[in-house]
Amino acid sequence: MKQFPAESISHSRVLVVGDVMLDRYWFGEVERISPEAPVPVVRVARREDRLGGAANVARNVAALGGHVTLVGVLGEDEAGDSVRRLSAEAGIQADLITDRSLHTTLKMRVLGRQQQLLRVDFEQHPAQEALDSIDAALARHLANHDIVVLSDYAKGVLARVESLIALARNAGIPVLVDPKGDDYSRYRGATLVTPNRSEMQQAVGRWNTESELTDRAQRLRADLDLEALLVTRSEQGMTLFTDTGREHIDAQAHEVFDVSGAGDTVLATLAVSRAIDLPWVDAMGWANRAGGIAVGKLGTSVVTAAELAGELS
């Protein structure tokens, strides 16, 4: 594989729209069991906030050297303030709508001895007025970007995803979608959809052979008028379906430490690669390498251009 095209990617412009969230980690030590219930007591020693969901996709684009604009919805609260601060620190141009009717989506994880013991989620769907603002923001930013990424975590920001895809398609801008749920008709007209293995099974049912997967994937791709369909398959690697056929790449041989956010890293790498017109197979290759690095890190994290270059060498 060729050297990672960091210089070209530094000119890429990616627009990320989707469910923005804050990932909060409380790290501590477990030394005893609670006398109140049979649960471990975690003595918290360190706290850390990280960008999650669509914001983690944007953070990964920035880490790879691309220019990125993030569009999403936040509440008027402390978690929303953290997202804005972390976005600025990551070099993300943030156009984040404030919806005073909701709390910012927050995933709080408690870890003891580097093992996740508990996760608590806070989430609400945005109001219709906020969705109107999402539509307007996408239309406003389209002309200044090479590619659009729609990051769907089923938190409501992409409730009108059909109209967002239509806006981008009419402007001639490619659209990459990280899907949720089993109704993929919502994503009709996108350029690429990237389901993981379980999401693909939700959409087309279980398959018993590679031939059966290929038939179902190509039928889904044709039904949705997609240019490409990429199925990420964990330890089985990735499989790409286009009108020229099927391409598969095996997973990178890395120790898996935490899969949180690895899909965001894969999506971001695909975005910057396609923004500079790399062929689909090359884009999949770099995304596979980036995902392999990401699963070796704790929690939602980023992969940098330097890490990808080092991986190849």
TrEMBL record:
Q: Per the UniProt record, which EC number(s) apply here?
A: 2.7.1.167
The name of this protein is D-beta-D-heptose 7-phosphate kinase
Gene3D superfamilies (UniProt xref): 3.40.1190.20
Record domain Carbohydrate kinase PfkB: where: 13-301
A Pfam family of the record is PfkB
Molecular function per GO: heptose 7-phosphate kinase activity; heptose-1-phosphate adenylyltransferase activity; phosphotransferase activity, alcohol group as acceptor
List the record's Gene Ontology CC terms alphabetically: cytosol
Q: Which UniProt keywords apply?
A: Kinase, Transferase
